[in-house]
Amino acid sequence: MSLRVSGGRLLAGAASRPMPSRTTANLVRTSRARSSRFSTSTPPPPPPETPRRPNPLVTSAAAGFAAGLIFVLARRWTTEAKSADVKCDGAPGLIVVDTHGRPWMPVDAEEQDDPRNPMRIRMANWVKSLQDHIVLTLEAIEASHSPLPSEHSPSSSAPPKFLRDAWLRPEGGEGSSCVLAGGRVFEKAGVNVSIVHGKLPPAGQKQMRAEHASLPQFDVPIPFFATGLSIVLHPRNPHVPTVHLNYRYFEVEHPEKPGEVLAWWFGGGSDLTPSYLVEDDARLFHSTLKDACDKHNTAYWPAFKAWCDKYFYIPHRKESRGVGGLFFDDLTTTSQIHAPKDGSNPPSKEEIFDFVKTISSAFLPAYVPIVLKNKDKGWTDEERRWQLIRRGRYVEFNLVYDRGTKFGLATPGARIESILMSLPEIARWEYMSEMGAEGTEEGKLMEVLRKPREWA
Q1: Angle (CA) 253 259 263, round 5°
Q2: Which of 145, 213, 260, 352 has the greatest number of CB atoms lying within 10 Å of its CB?
Q3: Is the residue at 193 inside a domain?
Q4: 244 is a catalytic site residue
Q5: Rounded to an integer, what distance in angstroms lies between the CA atom of residue 222 and that of residue 253?
Q6: C-alpha angle 449/455/456, rounded to 5°?
Q7: Which residues does the annotated region (Disordered) include (predicted)?
């Protein structure tokens, strides 16, 4: 008999803010800040017998995207490989410890956020918390699924778990790669957070300016920082679509004035790649993301949806990778989409960060119902064959066109395992395949891939 977990239970947490890690290594410990450059005043410490829960500096020092475009402005960010504590040299008083002799677990990630901290720390905290929340949700889905004897998925008394791989980059940076292989529901799943830091040379600055107009140009290398979360899920069942998510933050400092941020921006998005078109699923995914966008700016969704359709296009196949979603980059206060209208002011950095938190939190409510609806459907060998052919298209896009993957593979010291995490374990290429012909179920998908539609 199959064990089931209701969608309501799984989505109860997904619709709210993400929970932090419950593992010892990721446990957030806090103390009252002794001093801070990010606070105008220091409140008196609470009595030892009734400690309050302050807003802590995050212990998570990670962020990254499978695409590989992750950098970090590292000179002022220090960590110890053998410690869960993290501190920023710019705020020596904000050290993550527990002065009351017992660990403290925040209720959700929002309570860990402290506006006094630099945005690089706040974003790293957010994506680390979201990573853990998503991993726990996916593990719950795996545990809820008992494969039938006819299914081509492994059967085990122990539910599959993610491998949590914490790593350090010799050239500067660190991260956490959570990977599940051979799961009951997900054939391969990767949830990556990483940090890479160093100096961006003039040639690299020139290359990035093509896509990021806010980046200044110097004749000397400049310190840079980036943090982000990247997710790619390849389900086993051909009727459950592949999904991708990536949200990131990037900033550069003045080469001669440490601590002076010259430019910053947010970027990211999420898109759905089905093997078989289910229109209700496409509508759910798009409408959930649209609702999240509309809470902040009604101009976001139409612009970012169109950007997604344009970006995830495979020119040599003359088709899209999937049914899309949203994509944006170089989102800052001076972005064209924020041009003043009717006397309105552009959003602040804080408001843009709030949007990133909202849209990234919408991922599970947009995707989990689709998984629960389709994961128990049976499939044929021909449907599996078509799924593997579509995965081949996914590989083609990622290796040939994806900017982040190409940049990551060209970066000295890049962690190749994390960059290529987005690729499926199994894909297929056929010479002049007859699958996808007009009038077939496969052909219905091809119609949409050749001419993107509005789903929300």
Answers
A1: 35
A2: 145
A3: yes
A4: yes
A5: 6
A6: 155
A7: 1-57
Domain total in the chain: 1
The verdict on pTM exceeding 0.85 is no
**Cβ atoms of 234 and 212 closer than 8 Å:** no
132 pLDDT above the threshold of 50: yes
Calculate the CA 16 to chain-centre distance: 17
Q: Which long-range contacts (CB under 8 A, 24 or more apart) does 207-212 make?
A: 211/329, 211/330, 211/403, 212/250, 212/263, 212/265, 212/329, 212/330
**Domain housing 284:** 61-72+119-450
Active-site option among 145, 197, 234, 244: 244
Residue pair 279/444 in contact (Cβ under 8 Å)? The answer is no
Residue 153 belongs to some domain of the structure: yes
pLDDT one-digit tens code per residue, 403-443: 888 877 877 677 888 889 999 999 999 999 999 999 999 99
Looking at residue 71, its pLDDT comes to 32
Query: CATH number of the domain that 353 lies in?
Result: 3.40.1500.10
Q: Which of 249, 403, 266 is nearest to 331 (CA)?
A: 266
CA distances to 379, 391, 396, 400, 440 from 430, rounded to whole Å, are 20, 12, 13, 18, 18
426: which DSSP letter? -
* CA distance linking residue 133 with residue 446, whole number of Å: 34
Tell me if 414 is assigned to some domain: yes
Within a domain: residue 276?
yes
pLDDT: which is higher, 318 or 202 = 318
How many percent of the chain have pLDDT more than 70?
73
**379 φ, ψ to 5°?**
-145, 160
Inter-helix orientation angle 119-144/349-361, to 10°: 10
